[in-house]
Amino acid sequence: LEALVELAATAGDPLRREGLLRRADEVFGVEVHGFREALRRALALRARGEATARPIAAVVERQRTIESYVERKLLATLLQHPAGLERARAHVAPADFRDPACAELARWLWAAPGGAAPEPVAPLVRELLALDPEPNGEDGLEVAARVVASRRIRRELQERRERLRGTEDVSEQRRLEQEIIGLTKTLTELGV
């Protein structure tokens, strides 16, 4: 991302800079508005000869915090409403969790929820059970599961688009285009 700041600094044309921002969104999955603001601050710092890493790191950290919040909200709701596990499974799998502790807890829940939580996830279970209950019960669980699933689908879309840009094989291009269409449709159906 810091290399992108350098590229944007040399791109005097606002349209080219906007193209770089959109490409960053595709490649890095960074929300464009927040990154645009961070890039503006980084460019101002660069113009004064200061380090540019802090605004970029702040955007990445904010995005990770948001992702972790959604994962924790989903897991807390599952702990409060264990009957909703099948609904969650319809959208997400433990591999969809990016936070390592959340992924470990999800593996435990998906495998055999019940009884005492194993020691590696027990502190997280206690923390999540101490949170206020989800006011919308299993409906809130459905929304959180769709958000986590949409992140996975966006990553898959990004990966397919990258592969499409890199291939010259026409049959592979058609296959990837069909996958992109299918993923886009699934993302639309999730409604998040």
Structural class: mainly alpha
Average of pLDDT: 81
Total DSSP helices:
9
Strand content: under 5%
Q: What do you see in this structure?
A:
The longest helix has 30 residues, at about 135-165. By secondary structure, the protein is mainly α. Helix 1 (about 1-10) crosses helix 3 (about 30-45). The model has no long low-confidence stretch (mean pLDDT about 80). It has helices at about 1-10, 15-30, 30-45, 55-80, 85-90, 100-110, 120-130, 135-165, 170-190. The chain starts with a helix and ends with a helix. The protein is built from nine helices and no strands.
Describe, in short, the structure shown.
The protein is mostly helical. The chain is built from 9 helices and no strands.
Question: What are its keywords?
Answer:
192 residues; mainly alpha; 9 helices; 75% helix; globular
Question: Strands, helices and their partners?
Answer:
Elements: H1 2-10, H2 14-28, H3 32-47, H4 53-80, H5 85-89, H6 100-111, H7 122-129, H8 137-166, H9 170-190
Helix pairs in contact: 1-2, 1-3, 3-4, 4-6, 4-8, 8-9
